[in-house]
Structure formats: C-alpha cells, structure tokens
Design brief:
The protein has 716 residues and is α/β, with parallel strands linked by helices. It is 34% helix and 22% strand. The chain contains 18 helices and 29 strands. The strands form five sheets. Strands 16, 20, 21, 22, 23, 25, 26, 27, 28 and 29 form a ten-stranded mixed β-sheet that branches. The chain is globular, with a radius of gyration of 28 Å.
C-alpha cells in the first residue's frame, strides 16, 4: 500500500482532541474519587484553553491551503476541530452540572446562587461587595464615545444590558423576530438599550466560602435531586455576588439582563530572533501583549439575548462557529485548585509518599556512590530530593569547580536555582542555559534568569531558532586521581513541583564517554563549536533523527533475516510523518512494535498490510505520563535509551534534544520492567483503533493498575 495515502494518518489536531476526550472520560468515570474527577474536568478545560491559544490560532493564521498528511487542508481542519470542540464542551458541562455538582452536594459541598443564601450569608455577601468588590470593579460602558472595551484573555466578564432612559422619545421600526420567522413592529426609546461590561476581578479569590448551612433548594447551581448531607460547606462564585449587586454600579439605570462571557486569544509568541538585539527584553515585551492577541474563541452563558450576541460578535470579530454557549460557570479550570484543598483530602486519592533512592540513603557523599555505579530514578515513585541534593551538594563541595545546567521549566520557588546561586556565591563556575521560549513559562524563566545574572551566574539563552529542551546537569569535580565529570540526565524538568505528579526517569552517571558528550553539548550551546561526532548521545537537530532511523532500519533487517525484531517505545506524542512511515515499513517487514503514546498519535495501528504489527496504547491516570523511552531488540542484545524528545518534527528538527543510552544491564532490566508493567495495565490503559479512537483495555483476569504497581515496586 502507498505509505503516502492520507487514510493512513490521523490529523494532529483531531488526535489531540481525542486525547483530551480521554482526560474528560476520567472526570466522567465514577470509580474515581470525586475531587479527582473534578481535577480531571479542570485539566480538560485548561487543555482546551491552551489548544485554542496555540493550535487553533495557528490554523486560523495559515495562508497555505495545502493539506496535511491526513488529507485535511487548514479550513477543513478548523471546521472539523470546532465541531468536535462543541461536542466536548457540551459533555464537560453535562459532567459538571449533572454529575459532579450533585455528587458534591451528597458530600455537603454546595455552590449556591445569591437567591439560595440565608439572611446571614446574604449579609456577608452584601458586606463583601460594599467593602471589597465595589472598590475594585470598573464598569465599562459601550457607546459612541466609549467603544467596546478589550476583553482580557481568559478572564470572566459580565455583559450587562440596561433599559433605555424612561423620558427618551419613542421611535418605531420594523425588524425580524428572534427566530427570523416574521417581521415585527418595534418601539424603542431614541437612545435604545445600553450595554456595559464588568470584568470579574482576578485579584481576589473567585470561589468564596460561606459560613452556615444556607438554603439548598433552588439556589443551588445543580438541578439534580439530592440527599441532605450531615455536613454542609456552602460556596458562592464571585460573579454571582457581583451580579446580585450590579445595580449599584449603574445608578439611575435599570439593569434588564446580565450574562457571562469569556474570550480566549492567540497567545503564541512568534519572535524572529535574527532581527533582535536582546532576546530577554523582546520576550518581556511580547509577554505583555499576550493578553490582547487576536480572539479565537468566545464562551457565553445561554441566557444572553440575541441582540447582545450580535453586538459581542461584531465587537470581537468572531464567526458563529467560534462562539460557544455554556450551561454553567465559565472557566472550569478554576476548580483544579478548589479540588486540591486540604479539607477535601478524603475525596481524593490517598497520598503515596515517594521512597528515597536506596543507593544514596546512607551515603555521606552522592559523588562517591555515582563514581562506583550508575543510579536510576523513577519519579514520582522515587523522590526528587536526590536531584536537589546533587546540586546542593555540588554547591558547597570545595572540590567542585564548575556546574553547568539546562533549565526548561522550573517552579516558582525553585530550590535548584537557589542552590546554583549558592554555588556561584561559593566561587564555583556556574553556567545555566535558560530556555526563555518555554511556552507559558516564559515569565517565570525571565524572572529567574535576571536573578541568576545578578548573582554572578553565566546565563545563556541558547541557539538562535532552536529551543533547548534537553535536561542535563554537569558537575566538574577535582579528585585525587583526576578531574571527574558527574552528570544527571533526565526525561523531565528540574522542577520539584511537577516531579510529584509527572512520571519521569533520570540517570546519575560519571561515565567518561557521557562526560565528553555532555561537555561538547554545553560548548555547542554556549559557544561556536561545530560538533559532528558524538560518542554516546543522539542530539537533535544534528543526529537524533538519523540515529533513531538507523536503529529502526536495523530491526527491519533483522526481521527480514528471521531474527528477533521488536521495538517498544514510550512518548508523549507521535506526529512526525517521516518516522511514522519508517515504523509502517518496520511493521510490514514483521517487526513487532508496541507504543505507549499518552497524547497525540498520527499513526494508525492495526491496518492490514501496513500497521497490523503495531499496537498503540495510552495511559491517563493520576500522574501525567511524561517519560520518553526507546527499546530496540537488536537481535537479542537489547538497546535501551532515555530521551528528552518526542517523535515530533519540532523535537527532531527545531529543538536541542538528547537521547542517551542506558548501558548498565541491571538498569536496562529495570526500565524494561517499567514499560512491561505499563503495557499490562488493564485499569487505566486505552488501546488505539485504526480509526483514531480509543477503547479501554480488556479487564479480564487480574487487574493491573500500572501506576500503583510502580509505587509498589519503588518505581522499577
């Protein structure tokens, strides 16, 4: 079969939506604890926000009408995406209002409207509005002298309709009825209806906790019947307090209708690095404009009038298919923090404490351990503390001469950066490559880059036109017999917060061949080195695609010769068409291929004569599956690699990435075991069908819940 046939490929955007559907399924799944369900719902909403801000905005800007590998040109992609999103949004709000809210009410957790409050709670809200909110709110009128205000990206806003002045003269006219079935005679005051917008402030909490039981009848956001709980925790959304007091912002006018709106804007930052003098300053300027990018979506409550909708649509310049009616509060992503509150711990998964890395437990020095053996870590099952300790130990060790590190996404408090600053203060040579273009972490990274520069750290921003995505820390240490290089290499970021919820694998080693490659890599990133050969690493964009292709071709040759031929790989996304075609060729040759792809997958498994030797699985669970692993059978002498890269064109061609081998046979077996447990999962694993949809793995036999199994066995 022609491997360029469009029927062999999933569209990238529709595959992403299929992934988000799997996230939403976890919110719908009643076997999950209640607040875990709410968190999955919030994640699915946050994911959609980012999808519109980056991917939908990108499609809308495309000038070429050339189809992608799946045969869809940009206009058809956009139409298909918007239809699919419409279905997803309806499902999200059905889950929230018809399932999660009633379930919370059974637990005594109520979200009330102002009308559902008792007298004491109304008094609390009245005082809160008068004492706090009234001072913060800014009503923005819309008329000839005051044009439609800019709606900030992802903010919740109240759109207000005001009655015409009572003493204004009446004018008569003719208009179509709301259903456009007939003409009607109209009578309106000369100045007609008036409109205004009030942004719900982001400087105070949106979810407000109330005291006392309150009413739980018609004032609840849920329409489902409920049982009376023994404990009642009432809450109200900030916009409901504001709308109940909206008249106070418009003295002398009558508010006839209020509705909630929310606009999502293009937030992708596109900088031509060749034309700028200071990347740091240019990034800071670009970030300030992110909230005012071109609109790509508007969400509105269903009760908004048709006339008001037309005004909004004209002002925001979006067509009908970009406007979504919602049947609940805008921005469900807000509920992630709510679901994470300590008082709801009994409604979440029981916390499982990461175990310490056994090799370092009783060691006075990590360097003495790493000198003797490679050490593998599987987060979050094994503690990230060992990574922090590695940098902290290096910062104070008098024998350490230099520390070099790449930073892609770091936390807001970042003990790693504080350790690097301490190292610089102690006279170490510290060089840090900070990726300023890490999407949606740019502002945080700019803050840390400036702080490190002030502390005497050499801060580098990488190569022009390439994001630096590899995760490497190098420590150069003077020892009795030689200068030795110690390294930590990982599939995940130096972020102690995400290390608690992302699954990643890291390696400590002081192998000299790794040290030579690591030194070369930093010379490439910080200087003008042109490196053509690497001892152990596959480095993008130079050699990664070529080397992975070579390993796949070797499996094809082995299959043709009747030797064992198998590829097992785990990644976040698989979109690179050239790599997919190579995997199709491998399948046709008889290579058995098992892929764990959490998110986007443009490859279609199970197509007779093309991909019938390929299985694609996806695991969506309490931890985000983030590690990248490649295992090649190699004729019975397995080769195992860890990677910072997914098989996406951007990773292979537009980023600095590293794939590194695991050479210790014991550690190879640990990684193979990790993947075998994941592939045996019949609780949270879903299997891809040839049409791009996913179905849960069969639950026959003993249940295997891979993330719990990894906890049980300490990660490996």
């Amino acid at each position: 079969m022609n491997l360029h046939d469009a029927s062999l490929y999933n569209n990238r955007e529709l595959s992403w939506l299929e992934f988000n559907e799997r996230v939403l399924e976890e919110a719908i799944d009643k076997t999950n604890p209640l607040m875990e369900r709410l968190k999955f719902l919030a994640i699915s909403a946050s994911n959609l926000d980012e999808f519109f801000m980056v991917r939908v905005s990108s499609i809308m800007r495309m000038e070429s009408e050339s189809p992608d590998a799946s045969g869809l040109a940009p206009r058809k992609q956009l139409a298909a995406v918007l239809r699919r999103v419409s279905e997803m949004v309806a499902k999200q709000y059905s889950c929230f209002t018809r399932s999660i809210l009633p379930a919370m009410q059974k637990e005594g957790i109520f979200f009330l409207t102002y009308d559902g409050l008792d007298d004491a709670q109304k008094k609390f809200c009245d005082n809160y509005f008068n004492d706090v909110l009234y001072q913060v709110l800014t009503p923005m009128a819309i008329d000839q002298s005051r044009p439609f205000p800019t709606i900030n990206n992802r903010t919740v806003n109240i759109f207000i309709e005001l009655a015409a002045d009572k003493d204004a003269p009446i004018t008569r006219g003719i208009k179509w009825s709301d259903d456009e079935s007939r003409l009607e005679v109209t009578e309106e005051r000369a100045n007609g209806r008036k409109y205004a917008v009030v942004q719900v402030p982001t400087v105070v909490p949106r979810i407000v906790k109330l005291d006392g039981a309150g009413k739980t009848g018609d004032g609840s956001l849920s329409r489902e019947p409920r049982e009376e709980p023994s404990l009642v925790l009432p809450f109200i959304l900030l916009e409901n307090i504001i709308m109940a007091h909206i008249d106070k912002l418009f003295h002398g006018h009558t508010v006839t209708r209020t509705a909630l709106i929310r606009v999502t804007r293009n937030s992708d930052i596109d900088i031509s690095e060749e034309d700028i003098e200071d990347l740091l300053d240019e990034m800071a300027r670009s970030l300030r404009g992110r909230r005012w990018g071109e609109p790509v979506r508007m969400e509105k409550s269903k009760k908004i009038s048709k006339h008001a909708t037309q005004i909004l649509q004209t002002a925001i310049e979006l067509s009908d298919e970009h406007i979504y009616d919602i049947s609940g509060p805008p921005d469900l992503s807000e509920f992630f923090a709510f679901a994470s509150q300590p008082e709801f711990a009994h409604l979440r998964h029981a916390g499982i404490k990461p175990i310490s890395v056994a090799a370092f437990e009783n060691a006075s020095s990590m360097f003495s351990v790493i000198r003797k053996q490679d050490v593998l870590m599987h987060h979050p099952y094994e503690s990230f503390d060992s990574v922090l300790r590695f940098v902290q130990e290096a910062a104070v060790d008098p024998r350490v001469l230099a520390i070099k590190q790449t930073l892609y996404r770091v936390s807001g408090k970042s003990p790693v950066i504080h350790a690097l600053i301490k190292a610089a203060e102690n006279g170490k040579q510290v060089s840090v490559l900070v990726e300023l273009k890490a999407r949606f972490d740019e502002e945080n990274n700019i803050h840390w880059a400036k702080l490190m520069e002030k502390s005497g750290i050499h801060v580098i921003y990488g190569l022009v036109g390439l994001k630096t995505h590899c995760k490497i820390c190098l420590v150069v240490r003077r020892e009795d017999d030689a200068i030795r290089r110690y390294m930590h290499l990982s599939t995940g970021n130096y972020n102690e917060s995400t290390a608690k919820i992302y699954t990643d694998i890291g390696l400590f080693t002081c192998r000299d061949s790794f040290g030579q490659d690591t030194t070369q890599l930093f010379n490439l990133l910080t200087g003008y080195s042109k490196i053509t050969e690497w001892k152990k690493f596959f480095v993008a964009p130079a050699t990664l695609r070529t080397e992975l292709s070579r390993l796949i071709e070797a499996e094809i040759r082995n299959a043709v010769k009747g030797k064992p031929a198998e590829i097992t790989a785990k990644m976040n996304s698989l979109t690179d068409i050239e790599m997919i075609r190579l995997l199709y060729r491998a399948s046709q040759a008889g290579v058995k291929i098992r892929l764990l792809v959490r998110g986007i997958c443009c490859l279609r498994p199970g197509i007779p004569g093309v991909s019938d030797n390929i299985q694609v699985s996806s695991i969506i669970d309490r931890y985000l599956e983030h590690s990248r692993v490649f295992i090649f059978e190699n004729g019975g002498k397995k080769r195992v690699y860890l990677s910072s890269a997914d098989l996406m064109e951007r990773n292979l061609m537009r980023r600095v990435e590293v794939v590194f081998p695991i050479e210790d046979e014991k550690l190879q077996r640990e990684i193979i075991k990790i993947l075998e447990i994941s592939l045996a999962d019949n609780v949270k694993r879903r299997i891809a069908a040839p049409d791009g949809t996913y179905n849960r793995a069969s639950r026959r036999g003993q249940p295997v819940h891979s993330q719990l199994e990894h906890h049980m066995y300490g990660g490996g």
